[in-house]
Amino acid sequence: MAEPSAATQSPSVSSSSSGAEPSAPGGGSPGSCPALGAKSCGSSCAVHDLIFWRDVKKTGFVFGTTLIMLLSLAAFSVISVVSYLILALLSVTISFRVYKSVIQAVQKSEEGHPFKAYLDVDITLSSEAFHNYVNAAMVHINRALKLIIRLFLVEDLVDSLKLAVFMWLMTYVGAVFNGITLLILAELLIFSVPIVYEKYKTQIDHYVGIARDQTKSIVEKIQAKLPGIAKKKAE
Questions:
Q1: Cα–Cα distance, 101 to 109 (Å, whole number)
Q2: Angstrom distance (rounded) from CA 206 to CA 11
Q3: Which residue has better confidence, 108 or 168?
Q4: What angle do CA 174, 175, 181 make, to 5 degrees?
Q5: Rg from Cα positions in the chain
Q6: Rounded Cα gap, residues 149 and 195, in angstroms
Q7: What is the pLDDT of residue 111?
């Protein structure tokens, strides 16, 4: 009589386990990254944690290093900045190598090369990994080419006019700022806007929604007044 009871229990267990499995992909915690695959989720989560200052030391190091490099590029040429960076790195590694060699000679130890652990690291790029990176890049390149073609060949007149207005505004921006200055401003925005948005999300979403509705109404009025460019409704 014990065997039938065990048999009747097993379907319920399997059904409960099978019912719990589908909720796993979409039932992540609020702080977890979206299910984008192992590789894409890892990279996107790293960028997300970086710009949202999850690790203050890591983000501060990246932000400070890139900002100093951009400020250096604003004051000096690219060749000078790259040369000074390489000289600084070589000064550190050569000094440490000589220091460890002197210490080993004085202590008569045989610790070996101080950078041996890093020299033994395999940094070769396999053909499979190379093809994966190329295929991922080709997806973005093809998407960008398709977007460029539809904008410049005026598939949608409103979208092409938006690009024209944006480029016209960028001529005024370019007259005031150069490329390095824009990169510095972009970095400041990247490392400040996300954390501010996370803190004041409700208020920002409210005002963004109002601006979006007004912009949408203006675009609809323009489309209604210009003949032949109104977007077709989905059948």
A1: 10
A2: 50
A3: 168
A4: 55
A5: 28
A6: 36
A7: 79
Burial class, 44, CB count within 10 angstroms (exposed 0-12 / middle 13-18 / buried 19+):
middle
Stretch (H or E) spanning 186: helix 179-190
Structure tokens at 179: 């490329």
How far apart (Å, rounded) are the C-alpha atoms in residues 96 and 93? 5
Structure confidence at residue 15 (pLDDT): 41
pLDDT given for residue 146 in this prediction? 96
Look at the pTM and tell me if it is higher than 0.85: no
Task: Count the residues in the chain.
Answer: 235
Residues ≥6 apart with Cβ < 8 Å to 54: 48
- The confidence score (pLDDT) of residue 135 equals 94
In this structure, how many other beta carbons lie within 10 angstroms of the beta carbon of residue 191? Answer: 19
Among residues 71, 69, 74, which one has the least CA distance to residue 85?
69
* Residue 104 contacts residue 111 (beta carbons within 8 Å): yes
Q: How far does Cα 164 stand from its chain's mean position?
A: 27
> Does 165 score more than 90 pLDDT?
yes
Strands (E), 66-180: none
**CA–CA separation, 141 and 147 (whole Å):** 10
Q: Are 34 and 162 in contact (CB under 8 A)?
A: no
Residue with tokens 């929604």: 209
How far apart CA 163 and CA 40 sit, in angstroms, is 30
Q: Please give the single-letter amino acid code of residue 195.
A: I
